[in-house]
Amino acid sequence: MDYLVIARKYRPQTFAEVAGQEVVARTLTNAIRGHRVHHAYMFTGPRGVGKTSMARILAKALCCVSGPTTEPCGVCEHCMRISDSAHPDVTEVDAARFGNKEDITRLLEDVGFAPQLARVRVFILDEVHMLTGHSWNALLKVLEEPPPHMRFIFATTEVEKVLPTVLSRCQRFDFRSLDLPVIVARLKDIAAKEGAKLAEPVLYRVARAAGGGMRDAQTLLDQLIAVSDGAGTEDDLDLLLGAARGEDLRDMLKLALGGSSAPALVKFDACCSAGASASTILDQLIEHLRAIMLVQACGPEAQAVRRLGLPEEQLKVLAAAATPEKVLRAAQVLTGTQQHLRHGADPRLALEMALVRIARLGEVVDLERLVQRIERAEAGVAAGPR
Ligand SMILES: Nc1ncnc2c1ncn2[C@@H]1O[C@H](COP(=O)(O)OP(=O)(O)OP(=O)(O)O)[C@@H](O)[C@H]1O
Ligand SMILES: [Mg+2]
Ligand SMILES: [Zn+2]
Fold it and tell me: 129: Cβ below 6 Å to ligand 1?
């Protein structure tokens, strides 16, 4: 069997399979059931959350031999051809990749032709915001008087670039970026089908690294399975993400929080030499401090902690080793460093300074106490003897 990347192999094939977009799926299936399918839909939303998948499912629902149906069979000639992007009545065009936009204009001018195999023709136009002057005009023209056998499905990640006149002629659906548990559930399912053994915390980290996009999460899962032979650990994931090894990172943090700046700096240097970038290390440190803060505030079993996908035992050790006050201050130091990086500071130097400052937090706190004591003493003196 040909090697098929996970993101394509597990493309959802039915409305029910599209995770996290239930509102869109329900509205579309209701329209199909009620014979009220609109002639033009606009699917908007972030990358890799199911727009193209949903467009193809809708095309199948309309063209399936047993259709129009809310449950396309997946095995008839229509369904199979649509899956292979080879149905004569289903045109799928990606405006971002289409070299010559004039060709899109020509395609739009051809929509008058009747379908060859199915009962309707479906025109899926991806990244519709990339159209240029002439093709916009052609599009507007067909949307003003759509031929009765035509259904249009547009998809875009940048809806604000779509002409308002086009938008007003479409029924719009906003696809949501996906919640972590939704992504993790799907990853778990896929990992099981691929025979991979991945711990739930690792899957949570994969999902978090993907920032709410299912495609990115699945691509990362694919890479993780490939590098680890199906038994990916936190270390494998760190390697893939160009991050410092979790254990080294926690050592570094423990040393800094414990006031030992020199060995913390040595650790930092070693992580950089091993290939991690300073700014990724900074993100990791902040992520860890956040986890420690949550452990201190809500306990290690809290859902918010588990979702971070960091090893619970080690977090507990770190949480016990520093006061909440110090953890908060360290987090402030690091978020400040993040701002400096945004303004162009040298990442390595900025992070070294941050580590030293964290290591000296104890002294700063003590100085503050000292000031308070002096102030109290002075107030006492001013009040004079009673
Ligand atoms: N909601 C989802 N449920 C299940 N799988 C999904 C979902 N969204 C995306 N995927 C997975 O990601 C892959 C890409 O999804 P799709 O092409 O539908 O995304 P898209 O929203 O069109 O992205 P883009 O804006 O980049 O074109 C699919 O093959 C599928 O494996
Ligand atoms: Mg798409
Ligand atoms: Zn079918």
Answer: no
